[in-house]
Design goal:
Blueprint (H helix, E strand, L loop, with lengths): L1 E5 L8 H12 L18 E5 L15 H21 L3 E4 L6 H14 L5 E6 L4 H7 L3 H10 L5 E4 L5 H6 L5 E3 L11 H18 L8 H6 L6 E7 L8 H17 L5 E7 L5 H11 L5 E2 L6 E2 L1 E5 L3 H10 L2 E4 L10 H8 L4 E4 L15 E2 L4 H11 L5 H11 L2 H17 L1
Parallel strand pairs: 1-2, 1-3, 3-4, 4-5, 5-6, 7-8, 7-12, 8-11, 12-13, 13-14
Antiparallel strand pairs: 9-10
Helix pairs in contact: 2-3, 9-13, 12-14
């Protein structure tokens, strides 16, 4: 089966571009750059148009005149592949509910759709259906429906996201959750002992237990600290500022209760808006996010900036809890939650769209969106809960790269089989 992949790979790096790269690599890469190489076991020959419209995260979804020319350029590449290599199946990632991105989709469908037999949409973002019903004029809604008139297949990441595909009357809808390469293959040998030892130290502290100097060195710094990690784009919608408020509240509650521990927050990720970065810096300088008084006071918050590769791995390994209280308007899957599960890291996250589907049934770390008080309570509660092995096992059962590629390939091949 020949497939034209009209989607971009990093940079810029975010969940959608990363998953497209994993899919492309898993299916054997771009056939035009793999001459003489037969398709891999998934039976799909890929022809990739790297439709990158933005150079940075700040540019994503924003209007720029050059993007119109890029749309035409990428569409011409797609049509060339259609005619030169006989590719009849078009894979495309539709936009979330944002005007400029939807207008881009209009142009791509208008130019490319008549030339391809089968159209496959992969919904990496969520919220288009609600946006069409509540935020645009009837004319824009009608044009979207007309240009996306029933496609052959829509692939969604969760049951929640089926609504977007059904809104555009897709002929078939398949649910295929994301999967990633295991980022922590040495979990049992190196990470689990650390998790268990730090948990034991925290449980013993209220009873007067004191760790030895050896424990202190071996298991990563202050045994009186609950190490919380926020790793995502540093925006309000992803929950950054709710996390800050929750840490301040949790530490105030712990101090009032006379507890010997405090929450220490590490923030990793890029700021998209300078105004939010300035607000972040001002907020972490306030007294309720400082440890100690006067000139000797130190911040309870450490900012790493963008963390990738080994730096990202270390951030997950050295943390006790992962906090991701998102209410982002286009949140679809929360790939960072899956990464946290791979490290056996307890997660505090929101009951927002499909996020609960990523976690085990009746998971104890779910909170309401925009609820710092609930987040603060969950951070303290999960700090003495043993979730490391169950969460790691849940990751292995549900989110392996092999499962993802196999399910995705089967869904894509179904458009020709049926």
């Amino acid at each position: 089966m020949k497939l034209l992949i009209f989607a971009h790979t990093p940079p810029p790096h975010h969940g959608q571009s990363y998953m497209v790269k994993l899919m492309l690599d898993g299916f054997g890469g771009d056939c035009r750059r793999q001459k003489g190489k037969s398709p891999d076991g998934h039976g799909i020959e890929c022809y990739h148009v790297n439709a990158r419209f933005s150079k940075t995260l700040e540019d994503v979804g924003e209007f720029q005149g050059t993007k119109i020319f890029l749309i035409l350029f990428y569409c011409l590449q797609a049509l060339w592949c259609r005619l030169r290599y006989g590719v009849t199946n078009l894979y495309y990632v539709p936009a979330p509910g944002k005007s400029v991105a939807v207008y881009r989709d209009w142009l791509v469908m208008l130019i490319c759709r008549p030339f391809f037999k089968n159209i496959i949409l992969h919904w990496h973002a969520a919220g288009l259906a609600k946006w069409l019903e509540t935020s645009v004029q009837i004319r824009s809604r009608a044009i979207t429906y007309r240009l996306f008139k029933p496609v052959d297949l829509s692939i969604v990441l969760s049951r929640f996201n089926v609504a977007d595909a059904e809104k555009l009357l897709s002929r078939r809808v398949r649910v295929v959750g994301n999967g990633i390469p295991d980022p922590c293959p040495d979990f049992v040998a190196t990470v689990l002992p650390r998790r268990q030892a730090r948990l034991a130290l925290r449980k013993n502290l209220p009873a007067g237990g004191i760790s030895t100097a050896v424990d202190f060195e071996k298991y990563g710094g202050d045994h009186r600290g609950i190490k919380v990690l926020y790793l995502a784009h540093c925006t309000r919608g992803k929950g950054l500022f709710d996390t800050l408020e929750a840490v301040a509240l949790a530490n105030a509650n712990l101090a009032r209760a006379g507890a010997p521990v405090r929450v220490q927050l590490t923030v990793a990720g890029e700021f998209i808006h300078a105004s939010e970065q300035a607000e972040f810096e001002a907020r972490i300088a306030r007294p309720d996010l400082q440890a100690g008084n006067g000139p000797a006071a130190t911040s309870c918050v450490t900012y790493l900036g963008f963390a990738g590769g080994e730096r990202k791995r270390q951030a997950f390994v050295e943390s006790d809890i992962f906090c991701f209280p998102t209410y982002y308007h286009a949140e679809s899957f929360g790939l960072v939650v899956v990464e946290a599960l791979a490290f056996g890291l307890p997660v505090v996250t929101t009951r927002w769209r499909s996020t609960p589907e990523i976690l085990p049934p009746d998971y104890a770390g779910l909170v309401d969106p925009q609820s710092p008080e609930q987040i603060a309570e969950a951070l303290v509660r999960l700090s003495t809960s043993d979730f490391a092995e169950p969460l790691r096992e849940f990751f292995l059962r549900r989110f392996s790269l092999e499962q993802y590629l196999g399910g995705l390939a089967a869904a894509i091949r179904s458009v020709e089989q049926e």
